[in-house]
Amino acid sequence: MRARRLLTAAGYQAAAIATIFDAGYVVQYATSDWRGPGNDFIAFLLGARVGLAAGWSHLYDLGVQRAVLHHVWPGAQLTPIFQFISPPPMAWLNVAFAPLPVPVAAALWAILNVAALVFAWSLLAPGRGRHRGAQLVVAAGFFPVAYGLRLGQPVPLMVAAMAASWWLLQRQRPWLAGLALTVLVLKPQIALIVPLALLAAGYWRTAAGAAGAAAVLAVLSVLVIGPHGVDSYLRLTEHRQAQPLDWIETVASITGPGLPAHIAQAAVGVLAIALAATTARGNVSRALSIGVLGSILAAPYLHLDDQALLLVPAWLTWRAELPLHVKVWAALALIAVELGPLVGAPLGLAALTVWLVLTAAPSLPVSRTLPTRGDQHLTERSSDRC
Fold it and tell me: How many CB atoms are closer than 10 A to CB 246?
């Protein structure tokens, strides 16, 4: 017990120091020129403005994107950083921000993402009182979160969506839980395994709800952007996947890009789904944790900010009645991910792989739940074992 308390206190102190650094990092960027390199929100806003000004069929037309960017920022070059290559729903989401001055739109977008992170914390974070509050400090101190806020990435919205899905499943609302996961279409490449893990674990209604909503958005996207837009989108994404910046954080950093990486990513995805099917039936916390960890490991392209998604399995691990070494390893894995820019991605990938295995280890205790069938009797006790 004493060792557990000392480790917890040390972890919170380290998180507080990291939070101070992260806050300074975000404030420094917020008070500098918003048009500096690395502001992904400019690309999202660009997509919305292109669709409104030139029609959605030209969403991925680089010539139109260049013209609209020059209107926002005279003399700017449409480098890959500023190209809009996200799925159409990302542009639609930003239509509300399009008429606003860019600094105002960026500030509102940041507020929305911070609110989403706080919402997710309110649902998933373990503990009570100051311990629960310290979990928010841990989230703020996780550098991918601060880095994502600097870039204007929507990952906190995805974290909030998975937290809402988990909460709804606790209350036996599987279809609504699936609809909540629709937000994952904003960056599907970093959450591909999540609905598959839920399906494998027996939550077929949730998986069906998520798949159905995603299918509707996919069909609507194709209809709105048309054949020309689809062709342009496929060419842009194919080109970007060949860029080292987009795969250096993935298993391709170990295997090299191309077929070996694709085989390794597919193998990890299949492993995660198999683990969910054999160890997570009736345990949504374990299924979601496996889904997120498997998705990050199997992602075809990935950046440091995308790994803010790891807050979901971290909070679910720390709230569960698991051996101390599993919880400690989850914290060490987050640290390994943070060290990626300094020591390379393989360290973080190895740590996440071990975390995946520990999460799914059949020898660990499972939730004391009633026998389940499909999505019935999903309510887990507060111990929430996974």
Answer: 21
pLDDT at position 273 is 97
- CA distances (Å), origin 281, targets 26, 293, 325, 353: 41, 17, 23, 21
pLDDT of residue 73: 76
Looking only at Cα atoms, what is the longest distance across the chain?
Answer: 64
Q: How far apart are CA 305 and CA 206, in angstroms?
A: 27
Q: Give residue 1's pLDDT.
A: 55
The answer to whether residue 192 is domain-embedded is yes
For residue 282, what is the DSSP state? T
Distance CA 45, CA 105 (A): 9
The answer to whether residue 304 sits within a structural domain is: yes
Please name which of 165, 170, 176, 190 lies closest in space to residue 265, comparing C-alpha atoms.
Answer: 190
Domain count, the chain: 1
With 70 as the cut, is the pLDDT of residue 30 above it?
no
Residues recorded for the chain: 386
Mean predicted confidence (pLDDT) in 339-352: 90
Band (pLDDT 50/70/90 cuts) for residue 25 is: low
Cα 347 to Cα 280: distance, rounded to the nearest angstrom: 26
8 Å CB contact between 250 and 337: no
Instruction: Kindly give, in sequence order, each residue whose CB lies less than 8 Å from that of residue 168, ignoring residues fewer than 6 positions away.
Output: 174, 176, 177, 180
Q: Give the number of other CB atoms < 10 A from CB of residue 215.
A: 10
227 within domain boundaries? yes
The domain in which residue 198 lies consists of 100-111+153-360
Does 313 fall in a domain? yes
User: What is the DSSP track for 291-355?
Assistant: HHHHHHHH-SS--GGGGGGGHHHHHHHHHS---HHHHHHHHHHHHHHHTHHHH-HHHHHHHHHHH
pLDDT(378) > 50? no
